[in-house]
Amino acid sequence: MPKIERQAARRIAERKVAEVATQAGIELALSGAKVIEFDGGWIFPWNSKAYQQTGEFSDALAGNSPFVVFKDGSVSQAPSSCLTPADILEWVRANTDTERSRAEDSG
User: Fold this and answer.
1) 3-state secondary structure 45-91
2) Are residues 56 and 101 in contact, defined by beta-carbon separation less than 8 angstroms?
3) What residues contact residue 37 under an 8 Å CB cut-off, 6+ apart?
4) Consecutive H or E run containing 99
5) Do 71 and 40 form a contact (C-beta atoms < 8 A)?
6) Are the beta carbons of 61 and 47 closer than 8 angstroms?
7) Rounded Cα–Cα distance for residues 89 and 96 (Å)
8) Is 0.85 surpassed by the pTM of this model?
9) How far apart are CA 78 and CA 66, in angstroms?
10) CA gap 62, 75 in Å, rounded
């Protein structure tokens, strides 16, 4: 299975953020400097454009969990209960193993 590069993963995450922005009626953007790379892909945090421009807590969103783009091009959204990068990576590892097991069982 072909693997995508970071820029392609970023475009996928940008599309997901754009979908949320359209639904919410607010300008949103990826938090570019905070992208986390791991063996299987990238974690893309995002927030309101206003927060990213002002840094004011009153402009920040609550519950906006990051998008996880895997090197195979699939994307998931981490649960909002994942508060730290370590929490997100733990969730990714647990769910990646579960998803692979399901795919192997059904294939």
Assistant:
1) CEEEHHHHHHCCHHHCCCCCCCEEEECCCCEEECCCCCCCHHHHHHH
2) no
3) 6, 43
4) helix 85-106
5) yes
6) yes
7) 10
8) no
9) 6
10) 21
State both tokens at 50: 């206003």
The token duo for 2 is 């072909």
Backbone dihedral region for residue 97 (phi beyond 0: left; psi -120 to 50: alpha; all else: beta): alpha
Which residues, 6 or more positions from 65, have their beta carbon under 8 angstroms from its beta carbon? Answer: 77, 78, 79, 80, 82
What count of Cα atoms within 13 Å lies in the side-chain half-sphere of residue 31?
19
Q: What is the C-alpha to C-alpha distance for residues 59 and 56, in angstroms, rounded to an integer?
A: 5
Residue where the block lists tokens 């840094």: 55
Tens-digit pLDDT profile for the chain (107 aa)?
689 999 999 999 999 999 999 999 999 999 877 898 988 899 999 999 999 999 999 999 988 889 999 999 999 998 876 778 888 888 888 887 544 433 334 34
Strand, coil or helix: 43: strand
| Residue 39 near residue 81, CB atoms below 8 Å | no
